[in-house]
Amino acid sequence: MINKLNYYFVTLFVFGNLIERYRGTWASLFTTLFLFLLISILKIPVLIVAITIILIFFYSFFAIKSCLKNFKNDDPQEIVIDEFCGQSIPIILYEFSHSNSANSTTETLQIYFWFFLLFRLFDGLKPFPIDYVDKKYKNSFGILFDDVLAGFYVVLCLILFMVGKTFFF
Description:
This protein is an all-alpha fold. 74% of the residues lie in helices and 0% in strands.
């Protein structure tokens, strides 16, 4: 029973069986829209969302480990909880740093969309050290951490953009 629950957890319920292609992209898009709904539309406090995501992240280690033996691949395409965690990082950090700004929902959605595009870019290109983690660690740590690093690359881009905007525009 717990293995089935873990399977549904790590595949975000639908991405394991229902969606065949581009699971990671669809999971990242789902995460982006889901967080937009929670934070911008339903107005759930960012701290509550962040704590929930942190709990999901830590439980993911256990859930992935318990499911990995059921897959043939070391990094199965069906597991997309890593995309959820990685995509959440720039959105949550952005929301914490801009909690007092009054962006319209359209502006917020545009910013989230840029985060989605950048995350998919870094997750696909796998610049160092993402490629190293992806190749070296064939376990729950490696599956999760390469996407966490991709999320932090997006944050780095955001920081560089803000610094550049401050000094050059």
